[in-house]
Recover the amino acids of this structure.
């Protein structure tokens, strides 16, 4: 019950990694506010969790929507202790020199600027908490070259953002960290049959991640178990970044 009495706001928590994280934090005693642009699914999850869970519409590409969602959290609970930003994603992308300005801007907007908006809105509340922590969800694409340049650049930006914010707000006790998932089994892979089995070979551990693998890592960084950890990016990737591909292929 590491989150007993704590209030957590999560962006992008109606599905996938965010939903698993909301479940995990709720299970550990938190009151969770499920912020998502898919309000129907967010409400469904909140209903499933029951007491100590609520849903709020939150479109991270829209400042007003984010500010309103965080204000609704304060209105309901009078406080905010931890922020988890999961909203993000990529899309089918042409080769780099065919990528348009619009595609580039959209991916930076969703993955980097949208995350910044959540942090900016939450900070005044977090600064009043006894155990404030922020955990951002990035990607291994932000740590090395897996293509999808716009997505990778946006996710890489999150690592630098948390370093700066860790330094700036450390004296106030606010911690900022990033988890960088490898391939995780969510609905995003549904349209590519067989792809998860192929990608499992990138992991020395021989499998792709489950949303619960990420939820466990996010819960750790958000909890006081990580009280002396700030400004880091932690890969949660089954070891995919640990060594070259052929190592895991030979096994
Ligand atoms: N699944 C993977 O293999 C994988 C790998 C690396 C990183 N990630 C990252 O993990 C995060 C979650 O991915 P997932 O696979 O769980 O995806 P998902 O589609 O299952 O969940 C994403 C959630 O974010 C919400 N969302 C999307 N855009 C939003 C917006 N503009 N405003 C508010 N909410 C929005 C969606 O409605 C959904 O509930 C993303 O940031 C993604 O980039 C995923």
């Amino acid at each position: 019950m590491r989150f007993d009495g704590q209030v957590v706001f999560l962006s992008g928590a109606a599905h996938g990694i965010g939903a698993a994280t909301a479940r995990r934090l709720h299970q550990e005693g938190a009151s969770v506010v499920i912020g998502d642009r898919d309000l129907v699914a967010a409400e469904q999850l909140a209903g499933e969790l029951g007491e100590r869970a609520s849903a709020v519409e939150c479109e991270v590409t829209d400042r007003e929507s984010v500010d309103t969602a965080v204000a609704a959290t304060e209105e309901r609970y009078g406080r905010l202790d931890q922020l988890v930003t999961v909203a993000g994603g990529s899309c089918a992308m042409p080769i780099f020199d065919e990528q348009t300005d619009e595609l580039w801007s959209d991916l930076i907007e969703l993955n980097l600027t949208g995350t910044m908006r959540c942090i900016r809105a939450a900070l005044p509340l977090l600064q009043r908490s006894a155990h404030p922590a922020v955990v951002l969800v990035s990607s291994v694409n932000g740590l090395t070259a897996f293509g999808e340049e716009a997505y990778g650049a946006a996710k890489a930006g999150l690592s630098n953002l948390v370093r700066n914010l860790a330094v700036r707000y450390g004296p106030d006790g606010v911690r900022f960290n990033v988890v960088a998932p490898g391939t995780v089994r969510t609905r995003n892979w549904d349209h590519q049959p067989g792809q998860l089995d192929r990608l499992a070979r990138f992991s020395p551990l021989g499998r792709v991640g489950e949303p619960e693998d990420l939820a466990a890592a996010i819960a750790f960084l958000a909890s006081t178990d990580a009280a002396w950890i700030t400004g880091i990016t932690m890969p949660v990737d089954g070891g995919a970044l640990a060594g070259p591909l052929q190592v895991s292929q030979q096994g």
Remarks:
- The CA atoms of residues 142 and 156 lie 4 Å apart.
- Residues 11-12, 14-18, 36-38, 58-61, 86-89, 110, 114, 137, 139, 181, 183-184, 186-188 surround nicotinamide-adenine-dinucleotide (CB under 6 Å).
- The helical segments are 16-27, 39-49, 63-77, 101-126, 149-169, 195-199, 211-222, 245-250.
